[in-house]
Design brief:
The complex is a heterodimer of chains A (623) and B (362). By secondary structure, chain A is mainly beta. Helix content of chain A is 6%, strand content 56%. With 362 residues, chain B is mainly β. Chain B contains two helices and 28 strands. Classes of the chains: A mainly beta (623), B mainly beta (362).
């Protein structure tokens, strides 16, 4: 039955597209680009941080974990060395409470509910949006603490091919080899990214149990990845694309400090993932249609014990302008999941679908409001109806300065993972979804002086979650709705620079401070591994073909499960020097990085020491 | 005036910033009382720093609670998750699983005397005989999570030296000594092994109980009882689960008080006068309904006297006769010690460390 529903939705998805007449679009379309507004357009009241390609260029030999650790107001729980399991906590929520989206696919594992951010290398992408706070109405399940949207753009306006090679070498035998190409002509465009990365991660640390200096054992990793996208425009009004992305991560599991010298505790995993998406976009007189079908297969192999899933997903989004000031987007998603997990009953599978409607009304040139409504359906579960509302009002809107007040409120939810529903003899398919809500209120101020540009923003938030699902380490292990949590805090940023001036020496400085108070409602204690205070600052300097940057990160104390033991606060200072060269028509960028230059000893998860001072030399050539 | 207002605002924000940090909690230094008790907290898996020993000390005028009593007494952490916590009245033996240590300390002051690590791999529980301690050891873990070379270590309590060791059945858990015989509970077998203390190299006698033996307890008449359980990889018929009485004169199974609800840990503890034995039903997992049962050793029946969630250990205060129950709500937050009357009426509760497990009263 589910198959027929699924097939019908698939047919509907494409039938919607083919049943439209071909007409030139009449609204907000670039000359040769078919654009449907992203959900960001309907989230104007929320705090969204965009990490652009210029910024990512200095971090693109690393993973999403290292990028966000340096750039975002989030806490990354790293189980030791770069390449080890890394998960994210936004606004004090669990790693399963962040949705990570690529091409309409939520990359979070259907079995584990989260994405290991060490397996996502930023070299694949051109820019990233990080939306703080609940966005379940926009992105569906799991978008409770925040959402990360990974973007890899194609530039139709540039008819020339462009290729990029990058290699990097660093301490602990870090190696990186990457290729990125955007090529094609006429109606065809292609983008290919291939990379290989490895590190032995055998860095020194002081083992407080053995009371001696040791090198970390069994923490090395290798990452292989290939991303290919082909775009075809049969007409100015339509576009077909195929996006394929395959990765494999082979890694040792870093032992806890106490077991570092005991090879019997050495373990390893192989993560493989394949994501394939076919998109069809079409503009008609009134509507922009985007439909897609995706196949995703992921697998975690731990010494022959397999935890994996296959899913088939169909999406449709249609967008129109009801007037010059009102935009409407609506659509649906349908997905069937086939797990391959040794601890599930045979023939376990799950069907999920959701419908949504997003509406934005630009009431005046200063004031806009939007709402997004989503209803999700899951086989055997009742998912909550999820509304959100966003408001934005420009208190000041002059040619050289602006001040916006923004607010959003939304319900959030997380469908239990398949492990939480189907694992073991005590499988609990009726476990309730996590439920909650989030309220934001923020100010955003920008001011262009004669030579300086100032931007400052501050956002306050309050977030509640109910029916938090925790694992009960029983015999066998099972999941259960146990706790309620609440968190509140502020996120603030100030950036000042002369980067848009004509002065020879360019500079930019920035400060970011985040305060998060997160607790279980039944206990007066900060949630474990959630720092109350995060502080980041940077200074960038540029002179002709040289540039340098100094980043400082402060992470406050974090509680652990022992009330009398907190992870110490730490400061990390990173230094980077860049030199660009013009060689004929090619651009060569050399980067030398010195990370953790004060050799701070710190941990992001107890018992897993992090690297001290380390270096990397990177060369990137674009031609 | 405006500048003054702005200054106050900035000052207030900075004040909020610096008062909103996470504070390190201080604990009361440990000073032994005329009487009191210790609670051992096993801590969370892979997090050795979550293990600790806390103490309640009572004097004629005061009662103090030290959350980190062992650290206070010795200036250092235990350095591993606690498994066993046994005392002969003068010395306490603490075994740590993750660091494979056998720590010998003074029962009252908790001051460390010796730490044994030689030949120690995953130590478990201890029996005492004069100045010797006999400690069960699972052996080194293998890549498939099994353990090899299980044994019992013989340690001289006066010197802290390993004097002898001998191989036993797999995953040896409880251990007891009676009348020159050493009783070992290899928990992955269906037998209690009986060794002659005068000749430890001799093959043991086996007492088949048709269940996994776990822990021993002596009653007031010095009869030896053993908990009989099943495990996830060792299916045991319900009729063989419960509390088994061993006939130690001919080393046979004498009788069984059938209790199908007994937890896989097989946690049992004799009352302070040995008139009864307390057991824990169901697994001591968070949010799992558990119970404390009282075995009537003469009628061969049991009564449930206390129910609740996450019960992990039990003991009776010999002075007050109150029953102390160690509660583990979850593995991310502090545990509790609930205090009940002898008949199971709750008297109070106190917050302790993570995953409280064993009690020693002095």
């Amino acid at each position: 039955m589910k198959f027929y529903i699924f097939a019908t939705l698939l047919l509907l998805c494409f039938q919607q597209v083919y049943s439209q007449d071909y007409h030139l679009p009449d609204r907000e379309l670039k000359e040769v680009e078919i654009v449907s507004k992203s959900m960001k357009y309907y989230s104007q009241g929320t705090h969204i941080q965009s990490i652009d390609s210029a910024n990512m260029k200095f971090h693109n030999e690393g993973t999403l974990a290292s990028l966000l650790r340096e750039e975002a107001s989030v806490y990354i729980r790293e189980y030791g060395a770069p390449g080890q399991l890394s998960s994210i906590s936004i606004r004090g929520t669990s790693p399963v409470n962040t949705a990570i989206m690529w091409n309409g696919i939520n990359l979070n594992s259907m079995t584990l509910g989260q994405t290991d951010m060490s397996t996502i290398n930023t070299f694949y992408f051109d820019n990233i949006d990080l939306q703080y706070g609940a966005s379940s109405a926009q992105y569906g399940t799991g978008a409770v603490g925040g959402s990360i949207i990974l973007k890899d753009n194609i530039d139709w306006s540039n008819p020339k091919s462009q290729f990029e090679f990058q290699t990097a070498y660093g301490s602990f035998n870090q190696q990186f080899y990457g290729f990125k190409g955007e090529y094609g002509k006429g109606k065809w465009k292609h983008k290919t990214v291939a990379l290989y990365q490895k590190s032995d991660n055998n860095y020194p640390f002081y083992n407080e149990y053995d009371k001696e200096e040791q090198s970390v054992n069994n923490a090395g990793f290798e990452h292989y990845g290939l991303l290919h996208e082909t775009y075809f425009k049969p007409s100015e009004k339509s576009e077909i694309s195929v996006n394929l992305w395959s990765t494999m991560d082979v890694r040792g599991i870093q032992p806890i400090m106490i077991d570092n010298m005991n090879p019997n505790f050495n373990d390893s995993t192989i993560n493989t993932a394949f994501r394939g998406v076919i998109n069809y976009k079409l503009n008609t007189d009134k509507w922009t249609h985007i439909s897609s079908i995706a196949y995703i297969k992921d697998e975690l192999d731990n010494k022959g014990s397999i935890i994996g899933t296959e899913r088939l997903q169909a999406d449709y989004r249609g967008e129109t302008s009801l007037s010059n000031s009102i935009s409407l987007q609506t659509g649906f998603t349908a997905m069937n999941i086939w797990p391959d997990v040794y601890a599930y009953n045979a023939n376990t599978e799950e069907f999920r679908a959701s419908v949504f409607l997003a509406l934005r009304y630009d009431i005046t040139s200063r004031f806009s409001a939007s709402t997004v409504l989503r209803q999700t359906f899951v086989s055997g579960l009742n998912a909550p109806f999820t509304p959100s509302i966003d408001l934005s009002y420009a208190l000041i809107k002059d040619f050289d300065k602006s001040l916006k007040i923004k607010s959003s409120a939304g319900r959030s939810y997380r469908i239990p993972t398949m492990n939480e529903r189907y694992w073991g003899e005590k499988a609990n398919p009726d476990i309730e979804p996590e439920d909650g809500y989030n309220v934001d209120l923020g100010l955003d101020y920008s001011h262009d002086f004669a030579t300086l540009t100032l931007n400052a923003n501050v956002t306050g938030f309050y977030l509640r979650t109910y029916n938090k699902i925790l694992w009960v380490p029983g015999n066998p292990t099972y999941a259960k709705n146990i706790k309620n949590t609440k968190s509140f805090g502020i996120e603030s940023n100030v950036n000042l620079g002369n980067q848009h001036s004509k002065q020879q020496i360019k500079w930019k400085v920035g400060l970011a401070y985040t305060f998060t108070d997160a607790q279980n409602t039944d206990k007066d204690k900060q949630l474990i591994y959630v720092p109350k205070n995060l502080f980041k600052s940077f200074v960038n300097l540029g002179f002709k073909t040289w540039s340098m940057s100094v980043d400082h990160n402060f992470v406050g104390k974090r509680t652990t499960s022992n009330d009398y033991y907190n992870l110490d606060a730490y400061h990390i200072i990173n230094l980077g020097v860049n030199k660009s060269f013009k060689i004929n028509k090619s651009n060569l960028l050399l980067t030398l990085k010195a990370n953790n230059i004060t050799d701070a000893q710190y941990q992001n998860y107890e018992e897993y020491p992090m690297p001290g001072t380390n270096y990397m030399l990177k060369a990137n050539i674009i031609f | 005036m405006k500048n003054n207002y702005n200054f106050q605002l900035v000052f207030a924000l900075i004040a909020i910033l610096f008062t909103s940090c996470i504070e390190d909690k201080e604990t009361t230094p440990y000073v032994p009382g005329s009487e009191g008790f210790h609670v051992a907290h096993s801590g969370a898996f892979s997090k050795p720093k979550t293990a600790s020993v806390s103490a309640i000390s009572m004097t004629d005028t005061d009662t103090t609670f030290s959350h980190l009593a062992y650290k206070s007494a010795n200036g250092e952490e235990l350095g591993g998750n606690i498994e066993g916590f046994d005392s002969n009245g003068q010395l306490t033996v603490i075994t740590t699983a993750s660091t494979s240590q056998i720590i010998i300390c003074d029962t009252k002051t908790l001051e460390k005397r010796f730490v044994v690590t030689d030949s120690v791999d995953n130590p478990r529980y201890t029996a005492f005989d004069g100045n010797k301690a006999y400690v069960t050891v699972w052996g080194p873990i293998q890549p498939d999570y099994s353990y090899i070379n299980p044994k019992v270590l013989v340690i001289n309590l006066s010197t802290g030296k390993l004097e002898n060791w001998f191989s036993v059945g797999s995953n040896p858990e409880g251990i007891a000594i009676k009348d020159g015989k050493l009783y070992v509970a290899p928990s992955y077998t269906a037998n209690v092994e009986v060794y002659d203390l005068s000749d430890l190299s001799a093959a043991p006698e086996l007492i088949n109980i048709d269940a996994a033996p776990q822990h021993f307890a002596f009653d007031a008449d010095n009869n030896l009882w053993v908990s009989a359980t099943g495990a996830w990889n060792f299916v045991v018929a319900d009729e063989n689960k419960g509390l088994a009485k061993l006939n130690t004169s001919n080393n046979t199974l004498e009788t069984l008080i059938n209790y199908t609800g007994i937890g896989g840990d097989g946690y049992i503890k004799a009352s302070s006068d040995g008139s009864t034995i307390y057991g824990i039903g169901a697994e001591a997992w968070p949010s799992t309904t558990t119970e404390i049962v009282e075995f009537n050793l003469s009628s061969k029946k049991y009564d449930t006297i206390i129910t609740g969630e996450g019960f992990k250990g039990v003991g009776q205060n010999p002075a007050s006769k109150d029953i102390y129950v160690a509660v583990t709500p979850d593995y991310e937050n502090s545990g509790l010690v609930n205090v009940y009357t002898e008949t199971g009426t709750k008297k109070g509760s106190m917050e302790v460390g993570l995953a409280p497990y064993h009690f020693i009263f002095y």
